[in-house]
Amino acid sequence: MRADACFDTPWPAEDGGPERLAAISTTPLNIQPHERLQVTRRRTQMSTMTILGAPGEVFLLTHSAIRSQLGFATSSRVIRLDANTLQPLAKSPRLPGGRMWPGGMALHRNGDLYVVYGNHAHRLSRDLSLRASLTLAHDLPYNSFVLLGCGLLVCKNISDRVAARLSVIDPETLRPVCADLDCPEPSIARLSARGDTLYVVGVKSIFRYHWDRAAGRLIFDEGWRHNYVAGTQQSYGWDVVLAEDQAWFMDNGHHRYRTSMVGAGVSATPNRLIRVSLSDSADNDAIEVSGLGGGSVTNPPVFDVGRQIVVAMDSANKLLRAWRFDADRRSLTPLWARENFGAASHMLLYPGSGELVTNDYDKGCESVAVLDIVTGATRARAKIGGPLQGVVFPSPGWGRDFYWCSMGFVARVAVIDA
């Protein structure tokens, strides 16, 4: 059974769950020398993520885009796909949204799907019938949500100017359970959670809240906060991974992404991998990923708990790097680096086989690559195609396969004999 409030399935939410470990506990790819990757693609609207439900169920979250360019509100939609062919088996109605930003979807332990997109939250049954909707407070896009251990949903608006506003929602009624709470600063990154503790990466600092069940509200943790921007020219951080007793994320998140992250950095400085102890926020560290100016990312790192390896990227300068973490000494030792490697998307980790799935964008074409997380060597790769570099959410499949979302299409990548 899962320890969080997600449905008991291998991949019920973005990044696999609220701690964003991106770790897959089921069938590894386990690619052998005589095998290769086969890609099946289907065109969609803007694809954000796939998640898994009951055995064989695959759900895809999409949203509209053209209306946003014309200044109109956009909408989202959930599609249940055939696990192999990707043909649509069922579709939700168009779900009211608002201003465009990739939203999020999760399968709650109560068996229902939840979507937050634009400034709306929706509850759907697994046959994709709409059960309830809620209009959120800010007329701004909300970048997804997390499920606390108690089962409540928490979401927030995305902005680098307006203070982040947290909304706590009852999954049964889809109504707020307490007054919205303003954070001490704006926030771009998506939320993360461990149990009933919520982590927020603001534009300057990382901080957290604890859900007080007796009081029925979030309580700001006055003793745990780290200003990762202080004294630097860095820009804001992205999503945080909660691995072991550490929080891991990357900064210099301000960028000019249009078709790819390559050369899209805004800050003149290198981007950094940041570590903050969950026990003591004064125990922290920051290390440059590539050391090159103009470094930038739009997504989180990956931490392999069993091997104590962290992998981070500088997407603007096309570099992927790994370190070994010594928890006792709180030190990072360089392990390997891949230069001229166009990684920018959320990643997948198969801990059992040590396989890391990421993208590699080069000369206007995207490929997916399966790397050995210990050595950085390529075990397999395949062209996905399309002119855009993916920056959203993949998921595992039900066997030796995974799903890849890249804006205008969704792909199934499966291991087959060469």
Question: How does the SSE layout of this entry go?
Answer:
Elements lengths: L34 E18 L5 E6 L2 H4 L4 E8 L6 E4 L3 E4 L5 E4 L5 E5 L2 E5 L5 E6 L6 E6 L5 E5 L7 E5 L11 E2 L9 E3 L2 E5 L3 E8 L4 E11 L13 E3 L2 E5 L21 E6 L6 E5 L13 E3 L4 E6 L4 E8 L4 E9 L8 E3 L4 E8 L2 E8 L5 E6 L11 E2 L4 E5 L1 E11 L1
Antiparallel strand pairs: 1-2, 1-32, 2-3, 3-4, 3-5, 6-7, 7-8, 8-9, 10-11, 11-12, 12-13, 14-15, 15-16, 16-17, 18-19, 19-20, 20-21, 22-23, 23-24, 24-25, 26-27, 27-28, 28-29, 30-31, 31-32
Question: How would you describe this protein?
Answer:
By secondary structure, the protein is mostly beta strands. It has one helix at 66-69; strands at residues 35-52, 58-63, 74-81, 88-91, 95-98, 104-107, 113-117, 120-124, 130-135, 142-147, 153-157, 165-169, 181-182, 192-194, 197-201, 205-212, 217-227, 241-243, 246-250, 272-277, 284-288, 302-304, 309-314, 319-326, 331-339, 348-350, 355-362, 365-372, 378-383, 395-396, 401-405, 407-417. It has one domain (14-417): Methylamine Dehydrogenase, Chain H (7 Propeller), CATH 2.130.10. Helices cover 1% and strands 46% of the residues. The strands form seven sheets. Strands 1, 2, 3, 4, 5, 30, 31 and 32 form an eight-stranded antiparallel sheet that branches. The chain has a four-stranded antiparallel sheet with strand order 6-7-8-9, with no helix packed on it. It has a four-stranded antiparallel sheet with strand order 10-11-12-13, with no helix packed on it. It is globular and about 55 Å long.
